Amino acid sequence: MPKANAIASELRKIADLLDRTPDAEITKPNLGFYHVGTEPKEQFIALAKVFPRPFDKGDGYSHDQYTLTHETDNLRVYASIDRSEVCTLIEPARPARYDCVPLLSLEEENALGEF
Questions:
Q1: What span, in angstroms and rounded, lies between the C-alpha atoms of 69 and 109?
Q2: pLDDT by position in tens, the chain (length 115)
Q3: Which residues pair with 17 in a beta bridge?
Q4: What's the whole-model pTM score?
Q5: What does the DSSP assignment read for the chain?
Q6: Could you report how far apart the first and last alpha carbons of the chain are, in Å?
Q7: Given its phi and psi angles, is residue 69 left (phi above 0), alpha (psi -120 to 50 degrees) or beta?
Q8: Are 64 and 84 in contact (CB under 8 A)?
Q9: Which has the closest alpha carbon to 31: 70, 94, 77?
Q10: What are residue 76's DSSP bridge partners?
């Protein structure tokens, strides 16, 4: 597993490359740290201690993850970990159930099949 200074060194290389063409317009990047594998909780906590401030805490891209996000006008950095790595499951998710009125009449549905 790389150390923080090794990651910083690689990020500096990228920054140096970007500085060579300072006026190039680039899509706002997302830099992510996703924690899985051996001791993900400990790794996540270690990163959280040095993570850029301020940051938001939330569900990330899904409710199955816990995510820290630091965002500026030019960059979004996030760190995510599966909730299963840091939480105890109390009640498993249930499939959604809907009660819907038909959007189309039977005639309209039949007409769709004629195309």
A1: 46
A2: 888 899 999 999 999 999 999 999 999 999 999 988 788 999 999 999 999 999 998 876 667 888 999 999 999 999 999 988 888 888 887 888 888 888 888 888 888 876 4
A3: none
A4: 0.69
A5: ---HHHHHHHHHHHHHHHHTSTT---PPPEEEEEE-SSSHHHHHHHHHHHS-SS-EEE-TTSTTEEEEEEE-SS-EEEEEEEHHHHS--SS-----------SS-HHHHHHHTT-
A6: 58
A7: beta
A8: yes
A9: 77
A10: 30, 71
* CB-count exposure of residue 79 (10 Å: 0-12, 13-18, 19+): buried
Tally of residues, the chain: 115
Q: Both tokens of residue 77?
A: 């950095």
Phi and psi angles of residue 30, each rounded to the nearest 5 degrees, phi first:
-115, 125
CB atoms within 10 A of CB 76: 14
